[in-house]
Specification:
Helix 3 runs antiparallel to helix 4. The longest helix is centred in the C-terminal third of the chain and has 26 residues. Strands 1, 2, 3, 4, 5, 6, 7, 8, 9, 10 and 11 form an eleven-stranded mixed β-sheet that branches. The chain is built from 13 helices and eleven strands. By secondary structure, it is α/β, with parallel strands linked by helices. The protein has a single domain, classed as Indigoidine synthase domain (Indigoidine synthase fold, 3-Layer(aba) Sandwich), CATH 3.40.1790. The structure holds pseudouridine-5'-monophosphate (PSU) and manganese (II) ion. Manganese (II) ion (MN) binds next to loops. Its EC number is 4.2.1.70. This is Pseudouridine-5'-phosphate glycosidase. It comes from Nocardioides pinisoli. It catalyses: D-ribose 5-phosphate + uracil = psi-UMP + H2O.
């Protein structure tokens, strides 16, 4: 049921490094046209890093691994593109619709295609107030079972970072601070929470991932790569903006799958675009690291 481009198929068959990329970040994570520019740039960074990029989405109902420039443009600009997590995959596939895949569904499709390294911006997690809303992203349950290493910039404080880390521990997911002892919070290098484990090189990441899977421990690994210092928004500054966005969301009664896209868009508005600049910088930074990890993984 998968459509895989010849380039990605050949790379996987010959053991060359491949990096999966998600599409919700394009369709529902950033405004047009910065979203399509980011998608193109990130693919270029992965290539420059010596790996083949495989952006993943559902197009005309077909899970598609590796996208054309026209596909990226469609995902970035067509309002009919649904946000598709695991739950939503059967709906878009059976109806022949377009879907932008989240971390969870991108991981699953990447694994089905044989791709083990995936680069994104931020993970979903346990939302603030989850003790009454039950809003916990399927990204976490997917990390528990699907064997893909996910490079991200940590977790935004639109989520409850402490509960998200607790949940990942329960689910058996190693969370690695890359070059840091502190778990990063997406826009900021700090979060106030320690990184559960620290690694300092792509080779160390590849070795840990290999050890996990060789032990028969299925499931993902989170590589939390802090935003570069020159691009970060100080935690106090972005904290105020996030609080306002959360209050606006509550007032509007927005819940469920619309929560994350609403908050991301609102934070861009309130920050006057500063959050978007930081978001793009951290994804590019993650793409560099992801390519290096994919190279190390392929070399083993
Ligand atoms: N965080 C971001 N940007 C994003 C997302 C999260 O900074 O684009 C997207 C990712 O696709 C992630 C999804 O998997 O939101 C989580 O949504 P939910 O909480 O509905 O599972
Ligand atoms: Mn949710």
């Amino acid at each position: 049921m998968l459509t895989v481009t010849d380039e990605v198929r050949d790379a996987l068959a010959s053991g060359q490094p491949v990096v999966a990329l998600e599409s919700t970040i394009i369709s529902h994570g950033m405004p047009y046209p910065q979203n399509v520019e980011m998608a193109r740039t990130v693919e270029g960074i992965v290539r420059d890093g010596g790996a083949v990029p495989a952006t993943i989405a559902v197009l005309h109902g077909r899970p598609t691994i590796g996208l054309s420039a026209d596909d990226l443009e469609l995902l970035a600009s067509d309002a009919s593109v649904m946000k598709v997590s695991i739950r939503d995959l059967p709906y878009v596939v059976s109806r022949g619709l377009h879907g932008a895949t989240t971390v969870a569904s991108t991981m699953r499709l990447a694994a089905l295609a044989g791709i083990r390294v995936f680069v994104t911006g931020g993970l979903g997690g346990v939302h603030r107030g989850a003790e009454t809303s039950y809003d916990v992203s399927a990204d976490l349950t997917e990390l528990a079972t699907t064997s893909v290493a996910v490079v991200c910039a940590g977790v935004k404080s639109i989520l409850d970072i402490g509960l998200t880390l607790e949940k990942l521990e329960t689910l058996g997911v190693p969370v690695l601070g890359y070059g840091t002892d502190e778990f990063p919070s997406f826009y900021s290098r700090s979060s106030g929470f320690a990184a559960p484990m620290r690694v300092d090189s792509p080779a160390e990441v590849a070795a840990l991932v290999r050890a996990k899977w060789d032990l028969g421990l299925a499931g993902g690994v989170v590589v939390a790569n802090p935003i570069p210092a020159e691009s970060e928004i100080p935690a106090e500054e972005i904290g105020v903006i996030i609080e306002q966005a959360l209050a606006d969301m509550d007032r509007l009664g927005i819940t469920g799958k619309d929560a994350t896209p609403y908050l991301l868009g609102r934070i861009v508005e309130i920050s006057g675009g500063a959050s978007l600049t930081a978001n793009i910088a951290l994804v590019e930074h993650n793409a560099r690291l992801g390519a290096a990890i994919a190279r190390e993984h392929a070399a083993r």
